[in-house]
Specification:
Strand content: 5-15%
Number of domains: 4
Shape: globular
CATH architecture of the largest domain: Alpha-Beta Barrel
CATH class of the largest domain: Alpha Beta
CATH superfamily of the largest domain: Alanine racemase
Distance between the termini: 38 Å
Structural class: alpha/beta
Bound molecules: pyridoxal-5'-phosphate
Number of strands: 21
């Protein structure tokens, strides 16, 4: 992927879109849903039939309709394709291994609780009998009340109090099939008591605390000291306790979850081996288990490397399914146990692909390495020396040259502070330093084994692309856990991206930036981008953001939810199914307990007073209040001059 563009000079227009595809790795991470077309735009092909939507034209269309950037575009058709892909992987494995049980997917609501998403999921998941998984009481409220569920299969995970459990039990009587998964031993007593009080037999699951660890960033979810699950001892006790309460016949499910984004298939296999043993042993003890729920964790190949790097995974959905099915089949056959229905709780893998965040570049700046007109003999010695360093850089001495330049720059700063260097001279030093840095960087890029010390040079010399969005709101995992998402311009891909840049967001937080981008074997610290053209929008897509980002996003600097559009493919082209307007400023202020009317009143009063005291003309007063009111009603992000960007 990398290094393709390194300063290779071609006549304008000679840059083939395929080179962009390769550079940004879109065919590696796009999973067939995203690619570059001959016109140099990113196109989206959500379905197997290959029908495509031009993402750039779509984004422009949506903007024309008043849905301003940043804009999150969701493709329910991709969601449907992912449901199919994963379900079919299991159906195929079941056939291949002649496994005598069935497969059911359940959707963990925590991955994206937005009503439109859950509704889409239930609609497209219908043919595949998708159920729901709730990880908390609020999520249970969603799961229970959503219409359109196949047979109401709901896996009830998370911490439970007696009211959670009673609600779940009673829901059996309104056509739901909630399986209450006991995650902590104490919940078993709540469950037994509630079942007695209500005279309703529960459907019980037990979560196993496996000794096997997951792999990747979330591997702490498994292992002997994991937060959830019953130990082997507790499992034994649970069986005894259920027997005594005459509820053992209600024990139907065994559950485990070794953490999100499992990077290595070997870790999953170990977990399935261990869980299968739990399963057959529990059956042996008299539990009529019908389901084995292998939890979530099916990984997404964010960086397209198909490796066990944290942003990837070294297996496919097909291999994942085959591993689960074959290992479970083996364990059941060995003990002549009836093979259970396999449940998965894949969330990330179902949802990640279906959303793209489109952001607009507002501004772009680069380091000024233009050379001082000439360095006269009379110039300050520091300036002359730095100029000499610049003249003598070569592939042999570039590291030393860089050290010298840093030293001279620091020296210049000291001289400036002490009053021995004029502002104009300091400016010369600044530009000469950047000129040296750029030259050194050229040698670093060309060097097969560049000194690790200079690894940070790329991002320090990189351009800054200021983008209309908030990392904290829209891609919180970049900030919180250094997650990588594929990022690339969605147009101009038939032009060489001659600049390298980092993305800066709107927040006034220095963490509000993206300076780590997918690449192999190591992420890169600057992204190839195009110099924006005046008067023409430059749009960048942040891809695979459908899982977790929306709900983990926060209101740092009070940037709120972005506009969201649901786009469905139709026979002719596409249809914008629904648009969810992003937060207005008044809404966001409401979250932190400010009342719009009170704020307006305060402004009015202060304004009136100033008019009385003749510090503000009536006209100015009117304009101030008009801006203030319109801003409260408007989008929290920057709004173009033409103002067609109400949320
Ligand atoms: C988070 C979670 C999931 C979903 O994990 P993904 O990595 O998104 O597939 C499934 N089950 C449980 C119990 C979870 O906590």
């Amino acid at each position: 992927m990398a290094g393709e563009t390194a300063a290779k000079k071609e006549p304008p227009g000679a840059w083939a879109p395929e080179r962009s595809a390769k550079l940004y790795g879109i065919d590696d991470w796009g999973a067939g849903y995203y690619r570059v077309d001959p016109a140099g735009h990113v196109v989206v092909t959500p379905r197997a039939d290959g029908r495509a939507v031009d993402l750039y034209n779509l984004a422009k269309d949506l903007e024309e309709r008043g849905h301003a950037f940043p804009l999150l575009v969701r493709f329910p058709d991709i969601l449907e394709s992912q449901v199919r892909r994963i379900s079919e992987a299991f159906y195929t494995a079941i056939q291949e291994y002649q496994y005598a049980g069935a497969y059911r997917g359940v959707f963990p609501i925590k991955v994206n609780q937005q009503r439109h998403v859950v509704e889409d999921l239930l609609r497209v998941g219908k043919p595949y009998q998708i159920g729901l998984e709730a990880g908390s009481k609020p999520e249970l409220m969603i799961a229970l009340a959503m219409p359109g569920q196949t047979d109401g299969l709901i896996i009830c995970n998370g911490y439970k109090d007696p009211s959670y459990i009673e609600t779940a039990l009673l829901a059996q009587r309104i056509g739901r099939r909630p399986i209450v998964v006991v995650e902590r031993f104490q919940e078993l007593e709540f469950l037994i008591a509630a079942s007695r009080r209500l005279a309703i037999e529960p459907i019980i699951g037990l979560r196993a605390r496996l000794g096997t660890q997951g792999s990747g960033r979330w591997e702490g979810s498994g292992g002997h000291r994991a937060k959830f699950g019953l130990t082997a001892t507790e499992m034994m006790e649970a069986v005894e306790r259920l027997k005594a309460a005459q509820l053992l016949p209600c024990l139907k499910l065994l559950h485990f979850h070794i953490g999100s984004q499992i990077t290595r298939i070997a870790a999953l296999k170990e977990a399935v081996r261990e869980a299968s043993r739990f399963f057959v042993e529990l059956v042996d003890l008299g539990a009529p288990l019908e389901f084995l729920d292998v939890g979530g964790g099916l990984g997404v190949d964010y960086d397209g490397s198909q490796t066990e790097s944290e942003s990837s995974r070294n297996y496919s959905a097909e291999e994942y399914a085959a591993s689960v099915v074959s290992l479970l089949d083996e364990a059941c056959k060995a003990r002549q146990v009836k093979p259970p229905t396999i449940i998965t709780e894949a969330g990330r893998a179902l949802l990640a692909y279906s959303s793209v965040l489109v952001v607009e570049v507002l501004d772009h700046d680069k380091v000024d390495s233009s050379l001082p007109a000439s360095v006269p003999r009379s110039a300050h010695q520091t300036v002359r020396e730095l100029s000499k360093v610049l003249r003598h850089i070569s592939s042999k001495n570039y590291q030393e040259a860089y050290h010298d330049a840093v030293e001279l720059r620091d020296e210049a700063l000291t001289l400036f502070k002490l009053g021995f260097l004029r502002l104009a001279e300091r400016a010369d030093v600044e530009r000469l330093f950047w000129a040296v840095s750029e030259k050194v960087l050229g040698f670093v890029r060309a060097d097969e084994y560049p000194p690790p010390e200079l690894a940070g040079l790329e991002s320090s010399v990189a351009d800054r692309f200021y983008c209309n969005f908030s990392v904290f709101q829209s891609t919180p995992d970049i900030w919180a856990v250094d997650q990588l998402f594929p990022i690339m311009p969605i147009h101009r891909l038939d032009e060489e991206p001659a600049r390298r840049g980092v993305l800066a967001d709107l927040t006034c937080d220095s963490d509000g930036k993206i300076d780590c981008f997918i690449d192999f074997p190591k992420p890169k610290s600057a992204l190839e981008l195009h110099a924006p053209k005046p008067g023409e929008p430059y749009l960048v897509g942040i891809f695979l953001v459908g899982a977790y980002q929306e709900i983990l996003g926060d209101l740092h600097n009070l940037f709120g939810d972005t506009n969201v559009a649901h786009v469905l493919l139709t026979d002719e082209a596409y249809r914008v199914e629904s648009v969810v307007a992003g937060d207005s400023i008044a809404e966001v202020l409401g979250y932190v307990q400010y009342d719009r009317d009170t704020l307006l009143d305060n402004m009015r009063r202060a304004g009136e007073q100033s008019v009385q005291e003749k510090r503000l003309t009536l006209e100015q007063y009117r304009l101030l209040m008009r801006h203030y009111e319109a801003s409260l009603a408007g989008y929290t992000y920057l709004v173009a001059e033409n103002g067609k960007t109400e949320p």
